[in-house]
Every structure is written in C-alpha cells, then in structure tokens.
Amino acid sequence: MARSGLLKSDVKKARDLLLAQQINPSVDAVRIALGNTGSKTTIHKYLKELDDDTGHPSPSISESLLDMVARLAAQLQVEADSQMDEIRSQLHEKDREHLEAFSEQKNALVALNSQVVQLESDLAREKTSAAAVQECLQQEALGRHTADQQVVHLKERLSENESHRQSLEEKHQHAREALEHYRQSVKEQRDQDQRRHEQQIQQLQAEMRKLQQSLVVKQDEVTRLNQDGVRLVADLSHARKSAYEQQTYGRQLEQKLEALPVIQQQHYALVSKLEEKDQRLKELTTQISDATNRAAELSKAIHRLELELASANATLAVQEATNAHFRAHLDRQ
C-alpha cells in the first residue's frame, strides 16, 4: 500500500509527463516529479503495472543498472547526509562543551588573577604593617635600653643617697652621743661641786666663774650642735623624699618594660600571618598554572576537532561530486 495516499493514477500522470518531455520515467525521475513523495518500491510496482497495461517494453539491462546505481547513489546520499548530520551534531555538541569548559576555565582564571591581585595588595599592606611594627619594636628596644641605663643610673644615685643617709645618721648618732656625754659630764661636775661647796666656797666661786665661762662656751657648742642636728634631720628628710621619687620612677620604668612582651607577641602574630599569606599566594600561582595548561589542552582539542570537521567536509564534498556525476550521467541518459 502506497504511503501518504500515493495512487497509481498519480504515478501514471507523472510517467506520462516525463514521456512527453522525452525523459526516461525511472523510479527516481517519477519520484522527483511527484515532489519527492511516495515509496520507491510502490512507484516501481506501479510503473511495472503501467508497463504491463500499455505493453511498453521493459527497460534494458543498462537502464536497470542505471536505475539501480541511481537508487544506490540516493541511498548513499541519504546515509552520507545522516552521517554528516550526526557528525555535525556531535562536533557542535563537543564545540559547545569545549567552549563552555574554556569559558569556565577562563572565568576561573580571571577570578584567580583577581584573588592574586587582592592577596598581593594584602601582602603589601601586611609588609608595611610589619615594617611599622618592626620600627616600633626598634624604638621600644632603644627606649628600653635607655630606660635600663636610667635605671642603672638611678640605682647608683639611690646607692649614693643611701650611703649619704647612713653617713648623716652616723653623724647624728655621734652628735646625740656627744650631747648625752656632755650632759652626763655636767651632771657629774655639778655633783662634785655640790659636795665640795661647803669646804671650798672660795674655790667654788672662782670655779663658778670659770664654769660660767665654760658654760657659755658649752651652750654655744650645744646650740651649734642642735643646729647641726636640725640641718642633718632636714637633709635626711630630703634624701628620703628623693629616694621615694627615684623608687616611683623605677616602678614606672618596670611597668613599661612589662608591656614590651605584648608588642613582641603582636609582631610574631603579624609575621605568622605574613607567612600564611605567602603560602596562599604560592597555592594560587599553582592553580593559575594548572588552569593555563588546561586551557592549552582545550585549545589543542578544538584544533583537532576543526581538522576532523574539515576532513569530514572534504569527504562530503567528494561524495557530493560523485553523486553529481551520477546525476549528470542519468540526465544524459
């Protein structure tokens, strides 16, 4: 049964039209006249029936061979078109996949480059910060050295003040002992004078005058000693005040020295962070190298597919030329 409603009358009309144009009514010619519709088997069957009905002689062996060759050429053309369509579809799909992969790799490369730029900027800032911290540490070290020297100097001054204070205390103690000794001597002398008062009244009066003179001298000496004692007490108070001030300044310097390890820890943390940034930069550089190699491989694969496509197009051109040669030969027949 004919496909798409092909009737024997349609085949007869196409056959008669070809005969009127003095064209051999082969199966392919009739199918072309029918608008490339209908099965070649059905058309061949109707043509055979029409030949039997009209008594038209059967085609010669050459015509049968040409018809067979034409059918084979058409079949080859169909198969070649199908294969080429499949090859083109595969190539297009591979091209699309390769382009997508290349685009992804390119985007990844751009992202990695951006990360590298950002990391380089962070690294520059970290290096600047590390340099600032290093300078601060050097200044602190210099300040610490200066403070150590000041502490040593203050300790020396404190030792000198302590020695001076001890000397003043010794002098004050000697003055007190001398005053006490003088008082004791005066008391003993008075006791002696009291015992000899009745017996030696004349001598006592003379001695009293001497004693009065001596007492005036002694009083002057006592006054002088008291003044020296007051001055020594004032010097001792001033020395104690100076020592207290030096101790307060020494404690302030010790507090500054205690704060120095915190700055050193911050420096070590910045150095560790800088090393981590350097390691991350090395990893990103390796990733960029891998992405570049992958892009080169994709480019080679695309070039190879382009060569295969060119080869397939050349094969198709040869087949089309062969088919055109067969069609020209059939048309001449």
Overall shape = rod-shaped
Secondary structure category: mainly alpha
Helix content: over 70%
Total strand segments: 0
Largest sheet: none
Amount of beta strand: under 5%
Helix count from the secondary structure assignment? 5
Mean pLDDT, rounded to whole units?
A: 77
Q: State the end-to-end distance.
A: 30 Å
By CATH reckoning, the class of the domain at 103-316 would read: Mainly Alpha
CATH architecture of the domain at 103-316: Orthogonal Bundle
Topology as H/E string?
HHHHH
Radius of gyration: 64 Å
Low-confidence stretches: 56-61
CATH topology of the domain at 103-316: Helix Hairpins
Q: Could you explain the architecture of this structure?
A:
By secondary structure, the protein is an all-alpha fold. The protein has a domain at 103-316: Helix Hairpins (Orthogonal Bundle). 91% of the residues lie in helices and 0% in strands. Helix 1 (8-20) packs across helix 2, helix 1 (8-20) crosses helix 3 (40-54) and helix 4 (61-195) runs antiparallel to helix 5 (201-332).
Topology:
Elements: H1 8-20, H2 27-33, H3 40-54, H4 61-195, H5 201-332
Helix pairs in contact: 1-2, 1-3, 2-3, 4-5
Concise synopsis of the structure shown:
This protein is mainly alpha-helical.
What characteristics describe this protein?
333 residues; mainly alpha; Helix Hairpins; 5 helices; 91% helix; rod-shaped
